[in-house]
Each structure stands twice: as C-alpha cells, then as structure tokens.
Amino acid sequence: METKPYHVESWRDWIVPVAEEQLTLREILATALHLQAGQQDIPLIVQLVENPKFDIPGINLFNGAVGLEAHDCIHAILGRGMLPKDEAFVIGFTMGSSNRVTTTEERLFTLAAKYLYPGPYKFNDEDIHVFKDAVRLGFVSDCTPLAEVDYEPYMDMPIKQVRQEIGVEVELLKAYYQIERRRYPADKASQRTL
Fold it and tell me: Domain residues of the chain, as ranges?
C-alpha cells in the first residue's frame, strides 16, 4: 500500500483530493489515522450537535448526523481535509444529501458552529458560507443520503468506485471546488481541493 504522497505530520495538512481515484477507502483513512481525534477528544457540544448517538428518541435535531467513522469516510469520498472549510463542506453536504434540511435547522446549526463550538471547531463567516453552499449542493446531488450509507462494505473498493456506487457526482464537486478556490484565494482548504 503506497500512501507516501498523503503522509503528513499535522491534521492541518492532511487531504486526499477528489482527483484521487485508485486508493481504497481503507487506504485513505489509514493515511490519517494517526491524526484523527478520538470520540473522547471531541468537545461535548460538537458531539451533541453532530453525533446521532446523542439524539433524543423521536427528536431529530439535525438531519445528516453521523458517527465519527462515517464522518471520516465522507471526508475521503468528498475529497476534503480537516480544516474548518473542509469540515463545513462535509457537514453541509451530508446534511443536504438527506433532502430533509429545513431553513430553521440550517440556521440553528450555523449558530451553534459559530457561537457555541470551541477553538478549532468554530466556524467563521466564510466557513458558514461554504456550509450553506454544501447543503444546497448535497440537496441537488442524486447521491444516496450520506448519513444512511453503511461504509463497511466499501472499505476495500477504490474510492472512484465508492463514489460511483453511492452516486457522488465528482464533476459536481469539482465545479464547486473551482468556485470555492476563486472565492477564497488565500485559504489553504479552498486551494487544495482539486
């Protein structure tokens, strides 16, 4: 397994871009395993908002909530790193792909991400713009709702095949990433997506 091009020392530098097609989902995740935060490292407010295990039965606060392992798989599938704009895009696209996100839900999430999330989890205005774009992009995508996918059967498939199987339109992602790249020329996350 050759993962040298993607070996990095800091979570800030990690990305396997959307142009990658040959590595398996498992190989991509392995390139970042030493960088990933464990569930115990994620602040409680972030877990309460984003992790479905904290949902109250019968109450679904945010559509598209996924556990940490699925969230990491979605990073790989969408070709995003771990910087704030990457997180904003992954969360937004996942929520949007559910086709059930309301304006109120979107507003509540952005308020939590901007005002309640601590330190590196906090979204700024640009991150919120990327999040909102990603919600809409996920909504128009014909992919399987990403929060409903069981990623285990896909772990040993090349990432190109995984994207095809769940219906993620790579050309749609690339078109948006070009726009994002022009919109935020000084932002590292936006400049490395392609």
Answer: 4-191
